[in-house]
Structure formats: C-alpha cells, structure tokens
Amino acid sequence: MKIKLPFQNMSAESWQNLGLAALCLFYALQICFDLFWRNICGHLAIDYCSFWSAGYLANLKGYVAIYNLSLMHDIQKEIFPKLIAVTPTPFLPVFVIPFQLLALLHPSLSFWVWTFLNLAILVLYLLFFSVKLTGRAISSRLLLMLLLSVPTFINVFTGQVNVWLVICAGEFIRAMMTERPFQAGLWLGGFLLKPQILILIAPALLIQRAIKTLAGLTISSSILIGTSIALAGTDGLKNLFDLWLGYAGGLPTNDIEIMMNWRMIGLHLSTFTPPLFAWTIAGIGLLTTATATLYLWHRRIEPDSPSFIIALLGTLAATGTVAWHSHVHMAMILIPSMAYLLEQNLLPSRILNLWVFLPASIYVLVIILASLVQVAILPPGFDPLLNFLRGAVEFGLNLWLLFWAIKKSTQIYRKR
Fold it and tell me: Please, are residues 19 and 358 in contact by the beta-carbon 8 Å criterion?
C-alpha cells in the first residue's frame, strides 16, 4: 500500500495558501501569548495605550496636557504593566478627539473596540475603493494577502492609526482619477495625522503644477491646524512642536533601530563604522532617493491615468525611506495604490508576493530568535541584528518599488 505524503505536487498558489494559513496562525498565537501574559500596553496595544492616555488627559485636563510628558507618565504608569519610558502621542489635538470617546472605556476594552472597528473599516473601504475605481470588488485573495501583510498586522497589534491614512490615500487617488483635484487636495490634508508623509508628495505636486490640489491641501491643513489651535491654544501647538523636535532628536520610545528609513541605516552603520562616515552614507542615500523620486514627476502626468498611480506608489514607497520618523506599519499607505495596480494587471503579482511573504518570513524568524535571546539560549548580542532585519527588509522593498515605478514610468513614456 502506497502512503501518500502530504504537500506533494502542490502548485505555487497552494504553497502560498499554506503560507497565509501559517501566518494567520502565527499572528493569532502572538496575540494570545500577550493576552496570557497580561501584556496589554506592554507590547500588545502599546501605541494605542499612548493614544488612550492622550484622550484620557484631554478629558481630564484639556488638550494642552496631552504633550506634557510628566502627566503622560502619571497616566501610563497606571495602565502599562512595566513602564520603562513614556510613549508620547505626537498628533494635532483635532486627531485626539476620537480617543477622548474611547478613553471613556477601560484601556483593554477600548483597544478591542478600536481594533475591530479598524479591521471592519479597512475591509469595507478596500471593497468600496475597488468597486468605485475598477467596477468590481477586490479579489478575496488579494484582500487576504493585504490584511496578512506585516504592516497591517503591526498596525493592528500595536493599535496604530494607519487605516485612516489608507483611506486618505485611497480617496486622494479616487478624486485625482475622477478629475476632482481640489477634493484630492482636501484628502491629502488628512496626512497631517503623520505629516512626514507629505515630504515628497507635496513637492511632486508642485513640480506637476497641480495648483488646485495644492489649494485643497492648504485649505484642509489650515482647517485642521486652526481647529487644533482653537482646542489647545498656541501654547498647546508650541508644546507639540517641541515634542516633534524631540522625535527628530530621538526619544527613548522612538525605536529608531527598527525603522525602515535611511535614519535607521545610519544608526546601525554608526555602530561599526565612524559616525561621520555612517551618517554621510545615510545622507547621500536619502538625497539620492528623494531626487530619484522627484524625477518621477519631471514630465507631465495626467492625474486620471495609471501612470499617476505608478508614480504615486513609487513616491509613497520612497517616503518610507526618506521620512525621519518611519516605522514598518506606515507602509500601509501603499495599499490603495498597490491594490489598484494589481487589479489592473499593471503591477506584477511577484511584487505583491514578495511584499507580503518576505517581511512576514523575516518577522517570524525575528520573533523566534528574539524569544531565544529572552530565555538566554542565544546571547543578547543578537538583538542589534534582529532589530536591523525588522526594518531593513521593508526599507529594501520600498527602494525596489521606487526603482520599479521609475522603470515602468519610463517604459510607458517611450511607448507614446
């Protein structure tokens, strides 16, 4: 009697399905372990607990208090299992309003409400976005792959806010492709939630002389900033600016070593080369990346053409490497551009496969090896390498997407 061995003669898609199932199981186990260890606000939901603290402080003492790290410390020491350093909330006051409502609930319950709300909105929005732009719903396989990507999981696990940036990016695309440039600019103002995202797209629009879009951006930004001044006063905005300067210099909870940008490269290089050499390399890399990105826009691009989305994908990918504060979960802003290009067969499926499976494989490996370091099976000297791997893989993929966008844009232009 012949015994049929498992996993024989499987297609590439079947292997991918197996990988997605394994990834889903791994993510679920990681969440379950943190729940078992009562580690909410210690690891699971660590960013969300900072946002919750900001909402709680705004309710208790007003918006100016949000940026007072001493007051934040007093709140966080009560809800964090072990508070090593304060985790600030560097958002404009207007963006703290939703967390004021959520702060009426216990942090744990509040986190789960936030998580399920974000997941539901993300799924519904991607379905809506796809139908509106392509006339058909996003494929269930593509949707699942985007949901199981590392940026999405880390966003969920830490309780981050990137779903709302996905919506801003998607609605910007929809408005541009339906010849509503002013409304597109209004949606871009939502990027003030994490203003570093505007560092390349705003100059690109200026190069394109997209005056109406820039006017929309100016108006929505003015409304958001004006509302924030009304809520916190000029003192509150000054305190927020001081906090941003602290982020630029580096706060203990910034985790620069696991970022996906040139700043992370400079930091790791400086551990085994002279700092001047390391930061010179990082600086040259940053300037080269920014220059290459703006090159994408040196020719006139019709906003309602696929070429615009290709250039936008490259620009947002490059933003992840150039922005001074840029974590892996911020790569979620690529999702609308990628989804559209994949549905239109303009982005090779191998890029999606690599974008999903390579970071996930490295993430799983890093978590396993980090656990071995924790139980002293591996020496602590492994930590810098593991930190580097967490950010470097997304960093490399961002540069690859930029290169692909430049190459694809050049090919399209030559065919005209």
Answer: no
